[in-house]
Structures are given as structure tokens and as C-alpha cells.
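VOC family protein
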Amino acid sequence: MLPPVNLRPSFNITRTSHVRLTVADLAESRNFYTNALGLVVSDEDERTCYLRGLAEACHHSLVLELDEEGAGACRRIGFRVFLDEDLDVAYVWFRDRGLPAEWVDLPYQARTLHVTDPAGTPLELCAHMETRPRLHIAFEHYKGAHAQRLDHFQTFAPNAYELTAFYGELGFRNSEYLAHGDKLLSSFMYRKGTTLDLALVENTGPALHHFAYTVSESRDIFTACDWAGILGYGEGVERGPGRHGPGGMLFTYLRDPDGHRVEVFNAHYQTIDTEIEPVRWDAGSLSTNVRWGFPALEKWYVEASPFVGTPQTPPAEPPQPMTLERYLLERSAH
């Protein structure tokens, strides 16, 4: 069912690092992320805002870039590698497989490599960033949901199995996965030793479904919703609060002023030991909102931020999730 994993990959990706988004109104987006989620600004100018969570020492985990014409898209998702020499190995590794790889210079980061996975997802690898003081016990800086750190991405890809195999070659292991019969529909992959760094879902892609920040207290999930309502973003509380089946985390999903989807959730379990087997979830009999509550709206399953300049491909078989609309229709029929 699952493709093999290379436990000694050619280069060492360590964790989810950062995401770059395009926005139409920098001040409005800054307001959402600082006052509803509680991120802090590391640096900013008239066209770019760099933010981090309260527990993060590295300069940024979220970069907002003003683009009035192309707002609502994602430029790249970023991962950290352990050493600078890993970047040199990664450059050759991607080039040898006919995949794009080029060096770029970016503010607040050391040498940075732009690469692309086989689905067309634009990635950014770096080994070092400038640092700022952690603010996790500087309670006077706390706002909104007190978001602590960036944890993971979820992306769409037209073939979940093929892309899971690709990231498995890079050392990404599976904590849990969703399947229907013998078909893999989504995989929850990690490098940092928790359940997730990258979730891959079979759907029209590549596209960024969401990125997620951790919070320290379960009540902070409700605080995110409260502050979204206070600030005028209440209609953007798209799903939850609820509890996931895979991972078991409490969560809520919010849409920012440009439609980007961000999750806030409490922490999940460790997955460091090699004898831990991935957990299979049956898509044919189970909603991922398995413990309680209703399924998500249809738009939660199909809408996502496109990647800038990247064409999308639909899957061979369109996904058929149990949406809230379908659930209510089937219940009314009985």
C-alpha cells in the first residue's frame, strides 16, 4: 500500500520551515496574522512582512508579499536542511532527476536553493536563517491565539502514491494514511519526529491546501475563532473547532483576507522510533472528523491556494469526500 522509505537519504531535510504567500493588502493581512493568530513581526517594509510564532527563534515562518494583481497564491513552501553541505547534495540530486534546481539570494536567509517536486510544487531549501529572541514567555507580547510555531503543510497532488514515493526517498516517513481499498488517497509524512511535516492529498494540484501553527493551550483554538470574529473575519472560520481522527489533534481552520487557509491546533504525538508502523484510515467508512461533529463544507475539500505560475493537473479519479452538503442531503433522504 505505502511505497518504501529511505531511512538514510542523500541529504537531510529536518523540518517544515516557512511559507511565502501573495496578498492584496499587506496591512490587512498583517492585521489578521498578528491580531487573530498572534504571530509577531520580525521585519517589514512597504511590500513584504516577515512573521514568526512566539516560540520560534528563526527569523520567519510566514512571509507575506504584496502583489495586487496576483494575490491569493503561494510562491513556495520551505523546508530546512541540517547543514549547508546538504544543499549542495540536494542541488545535484534534483538535477540528476531532471527536476529544476537553482540558487537564489533572499533576505534573512543564508544560501537558499529553489527546487520543484515531480508534481510541480515549488520548494525552498535553506540551512540557516538570522535569529530573533523567542517570545514564548514574553507574555506582554501575546495577542490573539498565541500561535507558537509553524508545524506542517498540506498540499494537493494529482497522484498521491507517486508523490509519497518521492518524499519517501527524501526520508519522509508516514505516521498515518488514508486509503480506499488498495488506493492511497492521502499520506501524513514527517521528518521532525512528530506526526506531520507534509500532508499529501490526491486532488487537482499542485496547490497549497493549508499551513498550520501550533498553540500551547486548547482554549487558544477558540481564541483564534473569537478574534477572527472581533476583527471582522468571522465568516472565514471555515471548519471546527473539532478533533481530527488522524493525529487526534484539536483544530480549527481559518481563511485569511486573501483566502489562504491556516490551521491552528494543539500538539501531537512523537514518531521518532523506527518500529512505529503507520496507521491506516479507511476512507470508505470514516470521516477525518471522526470523533464528533459534522463533515466539512465541500469548499474545504476542493479549494486551495495555487502556486504562482504553476499549471495544475486533475487526478485520474475525482475525489468523492463526505462533505457537509452531501451528508445533509443523504440524511434528509431518510
